[in-house]
Amino acid sequence: MSRPLLDARLTLLLSSLAAALLTGCPEEKVLCTSGLNVCGAECVDLQGDPSNCGACGAACGAGEACQAGVCGCQSGTEVCGDACVALASDPLNCGACGAACPSGQVCESGTCREGCSAGAERCGDSCVVLSNDPLNCGACGAVCPDVQSCHSGRCMYDVVTACFTNGQLVGIQAGTDRMGPRRQFGSGVQVLAAWDGVVLAADAARSVLSQASAGALGTLVEEDSLGAVAASPNDILVDPPYVYVLDSVNNTLQVLKQEGAAQGGGLGLRTVGQVNLGANTSPQVIAKRGDTFYIPLFGTAGSDFKQGNAVARVSVSDPEHPRLVDTVPLTGLDLKSFDGGTTMALPYAAAAVDAGVYVALTNLNPANDYLPNGPGMLARIDPADGGVQAIDLGAKDCLNAGDVQAVGDQLVVSCLGEAVFDTASGYRAKAVRATGLVLVKDDKPVASYALSPGCTGGPENGCDLAVGGRLAVVGNAVYVTDVNAGRVFVVEVRDGQFVERRGNSTPAAKGPALDACPVDPRRVVSNAIDIVAVP
Q1: What is the DSSP string of 339-353?
Q2: CA 217/CA 206 separation, integer angstroms
Q3: CB < 8 Å & 24+ apart, contacts of 183-186
Q4: What's the rounded Cα separation, in Å, for the pair 382 and 413?
Q5: Residue 323 vs residues 235, 250, 292, 319, 347: alpha-carbon distances, Å
Q6: Cα(452)–Cα(201) distance, rounded to whole angstroms?
Q7: What is the distance between the alpha carbons of residues 310 and 427, in angstroms, rounded to a whole number?
Q8: What is the pTM for the complete model shown?
Q9: Phi, psi (deg, nearest 5) at residue 525
Q10: What percent of the chain has pLDDT over 70?
Q11: 164 near 7, Cβ under 8 Å?
Q12: pLDDT tens-digit profile of 62-116?
């Protein structure tokens, strides 16, 4: 199985499958993608929709959210009698059920007081912060739906992931790791970004950049052309008032600019510039340092990767006229070949931090079906002189490094591992090794986390193998996608170690990995293709 097929971002086969799956609704029957059910004329998620929780029309009560098809109290509330109440601010249940505040007093932080402290607003006899209270978000009594949080007075999800094969978006609440209802959106979303309460989703099947409110993921608010029929968007970088979209098939960096809000609550984007990075370069992601973009160039098999194996530097000092400055080659590194044979530092991701620009290297052998022939690695580029240093992540814990993100003063690397696929069952992984996370500090790996410990043989033997994908970071929590079985794992970084919150261990701290993207029985594989933290 070739490496391009392992990476769902480059899998044209999956693009066609997703497009075929999302064919619309014939007049006589509503067709829904995996994870959604027909309720009337709509496709809804009975596992997470508070208006249809467990069954069509079964609505949850006030202050309740739907999880696994069962209504329960929203985060921040507790059951008191037959109601969900906020013990932190409810004057009739202040700090404990039935603990009513004396007449004339208010409830703040679970304590009865004479008045509200500085920074808090009085809503009835409750003291709340309207900018972050999900029960009074932006105004008294404005309750955020399902598992949304309050961001600067607006309700939205903290984390959003895209399901490539199902064409869905799924919101997640940070901290509780609760999922909101899955929402149908597009037909081939490959990459996500977020800006000003809007989720941007680049759709490869239709070559458009779609926008949805971060609080209403199934509603399209604006759509902009990506300018190419066969677009394969690999990354979106938001740098207000500009949005940059990277296309790995057309080898372009497209620049869009906000020029007034569009009708419906969109950002009002318009294409203002573009630069071509060169034929057969296959650019992957954008890391910004100052006025320079660092863009890993993977290259293409058809050109023997001669235009890849490097990092392009693009000046955006004039954002509407980006300029390719040069490329930093990744040749000459000690890639620690397992057999002394061929291996290439094909780059997939990059992160810019104070110490330099770090690039995730797959370290594969194109001459041997793109199998790893060396450990997963990082390359640190010195922006001052373009010098490159290789960092060995350890073959036992990491093969095929695929994404890298900063967590404080440390780096987290996602390793896709070495996977063996069952081509007879829709390219579902039947064996994977060295897939997971590696924590790097001061250019040295200090901790690792395996996504599928003790899981062998695939779902027929009682476990779904994971293949690590892209990362999102919220505080010290790392959300990593699974591009094989459509899940999201949640791991915290604490004191130089990984602590599992939602994963495959028994028991995980908060339960199993999130089943964000259900496997469609007609397609078998399920890709949680990208994930983004909403600021």
Answers
A1: SSS--B--EEEEEEE
A2: 18
A3: 183/45, 183/217, 183/218, 184/22, 184/32, 184/33, 184/36, 184/43, 184/218, 185/210, 185/212, 185/217, 185/218, 185/220, 186/22, 186/210
A4: 19
A5: 18, 17, 10, 9, 21
A6: 29
A7: 29
A8: 0.91
A9: -75, 150
A10: 89
A11: no
A12: 889 999 999 999 999 999 998 999 999 999 999 999 999 999 999 999 999 999 9
Query: In terms of DSSP bridges, do strands 371-372 and 126-128 run parallel, antiparallel, or are they unpaired?
Result: unpaired
Q: Which residues pair with 414 in a beta bridge?
A: 403, 437
Output Rg (C-alpha) for the chain, integer angstroms. Answer: 24
Q: Catalogue the E-assigned strands of 316-387.
A: 323-329, 347-353, 356-361, 364-365, 371-372, 377-381
**Whole-angstrom Cα distance, residue 162 to residue 512?**
19
Report the distance separating Cα 442 and Cα 354, nearest Å.
Answer: 12
- What is the rounded CA–CA span in Å between residue 326 and residue 514? 42
pLDDT, tens only, 392-408: 999 999 999 999 999 99
CA neighbor of 148 nearest in space, from 180, 177, 175, 170:
180
Answer left, alpha or beta for residue 499, where phi above 0 means left and psi between -120 and 50 means alpha: beta
Torsion on CA atoms 75, 79, 84, 89, rounded to nearest 10: -80
Tokens 């160039």 map to which residue? 297
Contact 504, 452 (CB under 8 A): yes
CB-CB contact of 526 with 517 (8 Å): yes
Alpha-carbon span 219 to 147, nearest angstrom = 17
Query: In terms of Cα–Cα distance, which of 222, 186, 191 is closest to 206?
Result: 186
**What strands lie across the sheet with 497-502, from one edge to the other?**
468-474, 477-482, 488-494, 497-502
Phi then psi dihedrals of residue 368, to 5 deg: -130, 60
Q: How far apart are CA 466 and CA 519, in angstroms?
A: 13
Task: Give Cα separations from 46 to 24, 178, 263, 355, 357 (angstroms).
Answer: 20, 15, 31, 47, 44
Residues 6+ apart with CB under 8 A from 470: 349, 402, 403, 414, 480, 481, 529, 530, 531
What single-letter amino acid sits at 470? R
